[in-house]
Each structure stands twice: as structure tokens, then as C-alpha cells.
Amino acid sequence: MKATKISIIIPVFNEINTLKQILEKVEKAEFCSLKKEIILVDDGSKDGTREFLKLFEEKHKILFHAKNMGKGAAVRTALYYATGDIIVIQDADLEYNPDDYNKLIKLIINDEVDVAYGSRFLDIESKKRFRFLQYLGNKFLTAFTNLLFGVGLTDMETCYKAFRADIIRNISIKSNKFDFEPEITAKILKLKYHLQEVPISYNGRKYSEGKKIGWIDGFSAIRALIWYRIFD
Q: How many domains does one find in the chain?
């Protein structure tokens, strides 16, 4: 596809300790030399993140939620303002390396895929950085996805997802929280878009370092996968 601009969506909630670093990494990353539009959505932070983001209002698109609503809600808000030809999602922590996005973006630019996922499980070193229960949870949810949709994904829950903009804009995202990941995957698969995974690096953080997703979100993901397999 002919692409000149990429929208990088960054949902943010209480990430004052890592936000400066990840924003610098995103600003420096090449993103296949596309013009960058960085959209940050603060999801009701109370740790100084909101005040920090206000310093960048003239440089990037900065949006604010009055209260915490969840990752899905933040992505939905950002999509309304996104104008890029390709849209990607970047968490505000340091678990993922923005330089890895080039591998995903190239597949879309070269018309090889409609959607690209960065898989942490296709990278040998990244697999070693999972905590045991996190590893099992991710593998189970991915296997459940494969069973429901008859595919062979290795990492459904990955943050790194790249979309042709026309595709994700035409998908109604209803999930507010972390169940955004299974919802968008389910709808992409149901619509038979061409999705491919590529290996990416990963440096998982602990809950003591601010990691937010937990086992309760796993049950929400299962419910979302079943619901969106059957319904819209």
C-alpha cells in the first residue's frame, strides 16, 4: 500500500516512571521513515503523568480521560483523532522496543498483510523473560483463540499490533479494558483479514514495577473471545 504517515497510539495510566523514556524511544524510532503522528491518551492518571503530558501538547496529540476507563477505551479515543495510513499501538512502559515495529510495518507497506502482530514467543530470548504463570496464561489464551478460530497464532495478547488504518477504523471496538486485545483479534479473524506474526523482543516487568494486567483479565479475555466468536 502507499503509506506516508503512521499514527502511534500510546494509552497511558500512571506511568510517570517510564513515560519520558518510552516517548523518547518512540520519537527516535524510524517507523520505516513514515511521518509520525504520536497520540497519547492519559486514562485518568494520578501520579503526575497528566501534568507531564501537558508539556507536549504543542508537539503531539495529547488527550485526557476524566477518569480511568481502561486500555480499550483509550485506544478507541485515540482512533477518533488518528489520521495515519497505518496505525500501531505502543504501551507506555518499557516492555517493548519501538524499533521492532519496522518488521510489522514493512509487511503492510509491501501489501503482504492487512494486519501484523509482534510475537514475543517467536523470539527465543523473549520467551525466557516471562514469569511462569504469565507464560502459561498467555499460551492458554492464544491456544483458546486458535481453537475458536481455526488459526495458528503464537501470541494473541501481544501489545504490538499494526493495522492498515482503513481496517481498524471500520471495526467497532466495544471493550474498555484489556479485553480489547481478544476483541480486536476476534474481529480481525472473523473478517478474514490477512494477519501475520513476526518475532519481537520483550522485557517483561513485575507487578512491583507497575505491571497492571492480572489473572482476572484472563477470565475477561476468555469471555470476550467466546462472545465475539458468536456475536459482533
A: 1
Helix ranges restricted to H, the chain: 19-28, 49-53, 71-81, 101-109, 124-127, 132-149, 165-169, 180-190, 215-230
- Tell me the CATH number at 66: 3.90.550.10
The gap from C-alpha 226 to its chain's centroid, in whole angstroms, comes to 21
Q: What would the pLDDT profile of 197-225 be if each residue is shown by its tens digit?
A: 999 999 875 655 555 566 788 899 999 99
Q: Which domain holds residue 127?
A: 5-230
Interacting residues of 153 by C-beta distance below 8 A, sequence separation 6+: 117, 119, 142, 145, 146, 185, 195, 197
Q: What is the rounded CA–CA span in Å between residue 36 and residue 182?
A: 27
Q: Are strands 115-119 and 161-164 parallel, antiparallel or unpaired?
A: antiparallel
